[in-house]
Amino acid sequence: MSSSAQQSCPGTLLRDGQSQNQRLLPALDPSSAPIDGRDLQQWLDFAEQYAGLLNYINPQTNQNDGNWSLFFAQLPPELATQLAFDIDLDAVEASFAAQGDLPPHLGLLISFLRICRHARNELNAITGRHLDHFYRDVLRLKAAPAQPDKVHLLFELKKKVTELLLQKGTLVSAGKDATKKDIQLELAADISVFPVTVDSLRSVFIDTLKNRTVHLAPVANSADGIGGEFTDEQGQWPPFGAASLPQAQLGFAFAAPVLA
Q: Taking the model in full, what pTM does it have?
């Protein structure tokens, strides 16, 4: 039954109900291809490699004395994984304390890279702003109006109740939202609730690898598809059929008043 919310039921599988055509294409998500997607570890690796290309001039002899890569050798390799871009400063200080005192130049470098994340976020937002400009200003597309949510509800009758009619517009409680307000849903159509039981489970399987052979399971929830007992504890059976099921006997029939 379609309505505008979802009511939880024990043992019920919850699905969003979206088909592939309703999903957002990854290419339309600005975050799928950020302009600058480097994390803190990649920046530190770049700085160390770049420092290896810079000559270090000894101030005493005024001569080339290696490069600047030794300045990064004191950085613990696991530190960058602990100092993510988006953690708070208290966590940064705790990581420093756990690793011991860092040289001032490395502490300044990490602080600088963390400050650069603000510029990185602004840079990565250009793609989203350009997409909004294209849709809103160039194509002049307008946002669709808000639509109420639609969900499927599962009703269960109380004991000694054989049938119940729920009229269109009946309100169903769906808990509270993030602001602690009650969520009420409205039935989209009349529905008659009555006990239903599954009489039998059957399945049909078409084997496309063997000349489209048709297999039939008159008792799908059995070991052999025809009612055999399960030999294992799990009792698994193919819900959509399998090539191991008995082959179906196919036929056809005509019926029409003109043939009477």
A: 0.42
